[in-house]
Known about the structure:
The protein is an alpha/beta fold and 309 residues long. It folds into 2 domains: 9-36 and 147-298, Rossmann fold; 39-144, Rossmann fold (3-Layer(aba) Sandwich). It contains 12 helices and 10 strands. The chain has helices at 15-20, 39-53, 68-80, 98-105, 115-119, 124-134, 147-153, 175-182, 200-211, 236-249, 258-270, 289-298, and strands at residues 9-12, 23-28, 58-63, 83-89, 109-113, 138-140, 166-171, 189-194, 219-223, 279-284. The strands form 2 sheets. The protein has a 6-stranded mixed sheet with strand order 1-2-10-7-8-9. Strands 5-4-3-6 form a 4-stranded parallel sheet. β7, α8 and β8 form a beta-alpha-beta unit. α7 packs across α8 (175-182) and α10 (236-249) crosses α11 (258-270). The longest helix is centred in the N-terminal third of the chain and has 15 residues, at 39-53. 43% of the residues are buried. The model has no long low-confidence stretch (mean pLDDT 94). Keywords: Pyridoxal phosphate.
Amino acid sequence: xxxxxxxxxxxxxHELLEQKKLEMAMLRLDKVHPxxxxxxxxxxxxxxxxxxxxGKSTVLTFGGAFSNHIHATAAASQxxxxxxxxxIRGEDTDSKNPTLAYAKEKGMELHFVDRNTYREKNTxxxxxxxxxxFGDFYLIPEGGTNQLAIQGTSEILSSETSAFTHLATPIxxxxxxxxxxxxxxxYQTLLGISVLKGEFIRQELDNLAAHxxxxxxxxxxxxxxxxxxxxxxxxxxxxxxxRWFWKEFQVPLDxxxxxxxGYAIWEKIKxxxxxxxxxxxxxxxxxxxxSQGFTHRTGIELPYSFKVK
Length: 309
């Protein structure tokens, strides 16, 4: 799976940045591929390569009804010639929502399970039951986070990002943060903005880093106060910020991940939490397909349109 559009850095200009003597830019991973957007491209890259190396013809993975990972895995699997199966959380899920409808269009077979079963998805009995139902498959975990995903996301940073002193990314399952942390330079600080409610994410990330033997030469700082109520939760000020950001910079943010990251960093700028002359890089992790799902669920239109073929 090759990138069609090498990630580009878009510099952002605003009078507040000038007043604070800061520079800010966005790494547009949302443009890395027309179908497999953002960090999901990097998470799936080596997993699909490994599936082929193992001679597997089917990929199976897990996700919620509006999952970026389900959306990307369906597209990437079809492109690479794999059959795909999505185990979807919730038996009463609307299979006609934009994410799942797209996944079905890309050939993904959807299998809905109750939430109790979904919570046990990583246990041997559940996996053995899935093998009985679907035969031999290559398993990619929820969100795509595993050793091969971290290998992929460790390639996001490059010589072009070396000038930045502070980098920011949203945190879901943690695979992107760990890959970025592994490739930080000694003078760089990575700000991880959790989109999940709770302090548990700190221990979870420590456990993942230990399990996958991830060490960072730079500093990693986790922020847990910008979740807006929890995963996929939102408040009016978040939506207003997304609209404002689009008007000011013509960069689309989604309400699940990148909107919360952008809001957090802008608040930190207003509160003088960056030293003068800091160079801040926001990492756009894609996920714009989730905006369609957000509108589907809430009826709230965002200021940009997102279409994927």
